[in-house]
Fold:
Amino acid sequence: MTKIYDQDGPEAQQIAKYLPYFPFKGIPRFYDIGGFLAAPEVFQQIVDIFVARYADIGIDSVAGLDARGFILGPPIALALKKPFIMMRKEGKMPNTIASPEYKTEYGSRSGMTVQKDRIKEGDRVLVIDDLVATGGTLSSAIQLVQACGGKVVECACVVELKMFIDPPADTGLPSRTKLFKDLDINDVPVWGLVSEDVLTNEAELPTGYVDDGEEH
Structure:
């Protein structure tokens, strides 16, 4: 029988120890996947959890988002024996179609692109990224899959920041629920293995640490 892994369950709580947060890009808590990439047994466990979740739901391909989805997606696709599809920023691949401009927690971004012949009519696509916050990048991926005639069976991320799912209006935070509803993609499920509820590992900053993230 296939094991069911719950968000923030025992496995997720152990994995969370390998996801330290830094002040970066002006964000107080930037979660760094480099922590688990440096621990092969933890990286393998994450891959195994995702493979177990999606082995039996019937997918045709795995799409990873530029850039950290390119790290997570290929080993999952290989284990599932499915093609891996790159979704990249504009100008990086030939023969592409692009989604509309979208917004993230860092600001506006030009659309994501995918090569025209990678997703066929009726294909069931699993979308992979490292983290979902406001949902802007995932919304771009969903729109691309739909533009090609495919269907996103789920968007899967290692980290889900639940504070953005449907925050109260008075917080001023963007709502992923509202974004997906406005784009008519609110039927697409999103799943994250770990949430901010268990991400409590504050990185030990070296002397002289500087936030050198790109401007946003």
Notes: The CA atoms of residues 41 and 47 lie 10 Å apart. The first strand starts at residue 21 and ends at 24. DSSP finds six helices and eleven strands in the chain. The helical segments are 10-16, 34-37, 40-54, 69-80, 136-147, 176-182.
